[in-house]
Amino acid sequence: MSSGPRRKRYLRRPRPAGVAVLSLGLAGIAAALVAAGPPGLASARTTRTAGPALGTAARAGRLASLYWIFYKEDVERINKFDPEIVQEMTSGPGTYALTRSPTGPKLPPGVIKVENFFSEASLEQAIGDKTVFTGVRVVAEDPEDWRATPMDERQLPIRYMKAFSAAADSHGYQPILVPARDLMRVKGAVCTQKPSQTISQAYIACGMPAAAARARMFVIQAAAVETNLPALRQLVQQGAADALRANPDVIVLATLSAAPDGSPVPTSALIAAAKTILPYVKGLELNSEPANDHELVTFLTELNGS
């Protein structure tokens, strides 16, 4: 990605220039499954050479029932190895590709380009300068405790996320919000984490999901607690309920990662996390690094047949 080196979304990210998260190279994808029925879990662990035959790994399963958010280069990588798995996802309600660059290969058919911003101010500037990427109809904001998000927006995140959505909507763009939980640790912020709270509890107590009031989508960054199922359920269940209370039409997603703390987690843990949160959300933003591709691809295959 031309905007900068790859980074982990499940960790606090100091680099302001750009983000790249999910790497779904399919070199380790599952063996072909029986086309007449959903894929079985055991076969998902058999590797084979990437190529056109891998399209049988995901057919008419759960992938097509969910919303998905990826980064542009990751969708391109998936499509290179197995166009049919992308077709499986894009046959569903929506598959989105976040990008910080207007150049590069054309996205696979059905994948929706999203320009990714880190502040309301940067969106306003792009609209004023008429520099929003050509063809983009969806814009995302990823505010965090970093220099790319101005201090006033870090200290008053809900106000500025609502302003981001309002600006997007008034100019014909659909807004996606992906606020980081580390906004709860900004010094001088209107609401911050108390000593008696976890950061997730502060996220809920401070009303962060209320920012969804005018958003098309609201993404709960939950990957950091995905291996703590009670904490994961509490964060996502309450966060989704609060977002929907603020906006009954918002589409709520949550993040998962193949390495939420920088170390790989078993596929079984990802499946358990997905099953814990999918009753409350309509899709996933998947996070990983190249070293964890195999685990994440196995997860996708197994989830498809669950």
What does this structure look like?
The protein has 306 residues and is α/β, with parallel strands linked by helices. 31% of the residues lie in helices and 14% in strands. It has helices spanning 72-81, 83-90, 120-129, 151-155, 157-170, 199-205, 229-246, 267-277, 293-304; strands spanning 67-71, 94-99, 111-117, 138-141, 174-177, 217-220, 251-257, 283-287. An 8-stranded parallel beta barrel has the order 1-2-3-4-5-6-7-8, surrounded by 6 helices. Helix 3 runs parallel beside helix 5 (157-170).
List keywords for this structure.
306 residues, alpha/beta, TIM Barrel, disordered N terminus
Query: Class by helix and strand content?
Result: alpha/beta
Number of strands: 8
Uncertain runs: 1-59
Order of helices and strands: EHHEEHEHHEHEHEHEH
Q: Helix count, per DSSP?
A: 9
Radius of gyration of CA atoms, rounded to a whole number: 18 Å
- Report the average pLDDT across residues: 82
Shape: globular
- What is the strand arrangement across the widest sheet? 1-2-3-4-5-6-7-8
CATH architecture assignment name: Alpha-Beta Barrel
What's the story with the biggest beta sheet?
8 strands, parallel, barrel
Q: How many domains?
A: 1
Strand portion, in percent?
5-15%
Give the N-to-C terminal Cα separation: 33 Å
Please, what is the oligomeric state? single chain
Q: What's the topology here?
A:
Blueprint: E1 67-71, H1 72-81, H2 83-90, E2 94-99, E3 111-117, H3 120-129, E4 138-141, H4 151-155, H5 157-170, E5 174-177, H6 199-205, E6 217-220, H7 229-246, E7 251-257, H8 267-277, E8 283-287, H9 293-304
Parallel strand pairs: 1-2, 1-8, 2-3, 3-4, 4-5, 5-6, 6-7, 7-8
Helix pairs in contact: 1-2, 3-5, 6-7, 7-8, 8-9
